[in-house]
Amino acid sequence: xxxxxxxxxxxxxxxxxxxxxxxxxxxxxxxxxxxxxxxxxxxxxxxxxxxxxxxxxxxxxxxxxxxxxxxxxxxxxxxxxxxxxxxxxxxxxxxxxxxxxxxxxxxxxxxxxxxxxxxxxxxxxxxxxxxxxxxxxxxxxxxxxxxxxxxxxxxxxxxxxxxxxxxxxxxxxxxxxxxxxxxxxxxxxxxxxxxxxxxxxxxxxxxxxxxxxxxxxxxxxxxxxxxxxxxxxxxxxxx
Length: 239
Prior knowledge:
CATH class of the largest domain: Alpha Beta
Oligomer: single chain
CATH architecture of the largest domain: 2-Layer Sandwich
């Protein structure tokens, strides 16, 4: 078991990009943990814009509704469903037969949860145990290092991740506009502004308007289409 885990580490160390990660490493992770389903997900690539997917994610990936997600977010530590819920409760939360047993681990970068590695098993299969959690913790350590180094090198400048509309919103935020004022100026609803800011925060890996403006105005992320000044920012709690 230890030798195969070491082989997984060595294979991960040779991964050059996310396509390689998903084609070569994710299947190995699934094989190692005898998982029915397996995957590695980075939050900055989830299609949150899709309204139908949003509804599913609000329940399935909700800190409020899903104790596995809550454990992962609060502790940045691997977890399986038996640690946080009884089989009856878990069946209500996630009734899919191929998700009877679920194990998830964090991918962390710069102190933030940036992704998740997950594995599932069917009811007829053995449950994940403490050794699985320990092994997943080791895998997550290597994935976190990879995300903070190799993956980061292949990412475009963070300003390039924003859409033209999001850049417009960022510029108005830097001018001290409230969400309502931004909505009026761009002819969109205040709620649309709020949802856009949430996506922008996730893309830029920030947690406040001030942090977003400071990052976008930094020379490191300067773009001809972005001219933001932190000095113009008026802090606004209506995010």
